[in-house]
Amino acid sequence: MNQTATAVRLFSPKINRLLGVFAIGGVIANALLGLNAPPDQNQGVLVRLMFIHVASAWLSYLAYFGTGFFGLLYLWKKNLRFDRMAMASAELGVLFTISTLLGGMLWAKPTWGAYWVWDGRLTTTALSVLIYGGYLLLRSSIDDREKRARAAAVVGLMGTLYVPVNYMAVEWWRGVHQTQTLKLLGSPDFAASPIYGYLLLAAVVAFSLLYVYLLRVRTDLAELAEAREAREWQEDEA
Amino acid sequence: MISEEHVLYVALVYGVTFVLLAGYGLWIWRGFAAERRFKEDE
Can you tell me the distance from the alpha carbon of A68 to that of A65, in angstroms, rounded to the nearest whole number? Predict the structure, then answer.
């Protein structure tokens, strides 16, 4: 671990632990509130899934953008801490995309009558697991540390270009999936029941905090493992 | 009227998400524990 690597830490482990408590507490509180949300006229109690499904999908988008962003920072600064952050971000992206897909399939069955349909959004989401799964596989297949970081940064950046395709899939290829719940362009319509809007916003904030917390923890673990591997390699050489 | 089948699906989705999250948390925790053991053995 070098000085530059230490310098890019935004906050101390103590603050990150505090952040973790807030994030996990927020996610649990949100789940409890979401599970008690009033039934919707069309969806009935299934509307309660929105608070976890949309928040999970949001976290996966955030994580994929993070992979590209930290990869770009690595290419610029040549600091391996950024590469570890990119790896941690991709891992979180894959985890939460799997959660989004499984949750979506369980929502699809009672709504559409099937666990899976080849809808634009579902297909592009499944493809993002392949892209970022491939990113993680690529990392494990390159031994040279610098070369691995460089190749991963390029693939991570290219993968980030795919995220808007996944987001816009519901507009470009209109299928059975509803249009965006969280609209980046224009304002969401929760006029019929504003409580849904506030609850969803709280879920998104809680999941974003969880992302920041887990990103830091996973990056620290990767740093410890790499330092050990470097020591083992030196011992073998000696 | 609330559909019991729908309640089951809601419970499953929340359950799957939290099990995945807990599994990942446990895997990270075991990783830190293993690194600590390696350090002690050195």
Answer: 5
Q: CB–CB of B14 and A231 under 8 A? A: no
ipTM tops the 0.90 cut: yes
Task: Using CB atoms, pick whichever of B13, B28, B35 lies closest to residue A52.
Answer: B13
- Neighbouring CB atoms inside 10 A of A96's CB total 29
| Phi, psi (rounded to 5 degrees) for A39 | -60, 150
Nearest-angstrom CA–CA distance, A152 and A155: 5
Q: Provide the token pair at B8.
A: 């089951």
* CB within 8 Å: B13 and A102: yes
One-character DSSP codes across A139-162: HHH--SHHHHHHHHHHHHHHHHHH
Per-residue pLDDT reduced to its tens digit, A148-178? 999 999 999 998 888 887 777 667 777 667 6
pTM, rounded to two decimals: 0.89
